[in-house]
Amino acid sequence: MKAYVFPGQGSQFAGMGKDIYERSNLAKKLFNKSNDILGFSITDIMFGENEEDLKQTKVTQPAIFLHSVILSKVLNDSFLPEMVAGHSLGEFSALVAAGYISFEDGLNLVSKRALAMQTACDSTPSTMAAVLGLENKIVENVCSKIDEIVVPANYNCPGQLVISGSEKGIDIACQKLTEIGARRALKLPVSGAFHSPFMESARNELETAINNTKFNEGVCPIYQNTTAKSITNPEKIKENLKKQLTESVKWTQTMEQMISDGLSSVIEVGPGKVLQGFFKKVDRKIQTESAGL
Among all residues, which ones are annotated catalytic? Predict the structure, then answer.
């Protein structure tokens, strides 16, 4: 079976999407419509050379979403997924690409998500750290014993787990995890603790927007971050999406479930090749490639 997967925050780059825009009239139309929906010219920032401008939260998430979704639309008849999934932000791209929500609604949700997350980050200092070279259970156990909020945030691949929490909690966790053998326990240059209780205010805000969004039947199952299971029911998908900001991204579990369900090849749709690398860490035999025009 063939899966299309969609990357999350961190995969942006200067000039992203410009080649798609220049080679497709449909892409031009969708990018121009996006400028109108967002109320600013995101294409000027995406197609430009200033990477710092791309790092603004209100820009980063819509930019990655647009690059991914517009590419899937331009692929047209060659876009034939039998299963889809997206890492964190990428779940919204996957939902639009598979037909569960419209392009316009998806962009609106992503924009609101980005702004709500930024507000949550500004209100309470918090951070994240990548832990390499330890089993998940060991990391979970250490985090659970710290007298601060520290939780698993992104199960990226075997031996790579990102944790979220308070500044103090993450510092303590990094020290303890290094002491018991982590290859690395490195704080990340992020503005806050994504996929943790620190995102509760953002979750509330996004939940209202999700409730007001129409969900449809999709063209294939989606594997959602919070469950790592194959889902097709629009109402269940909607409910799971509401929990995404405060719960872990179960990407390792998602990849394992997809393989168990018959996955043979993976096409990454959007900027970068991070997800292909994660799949190779689970099973070297899985065929991986980037979507291209």
Answer: 88, 195
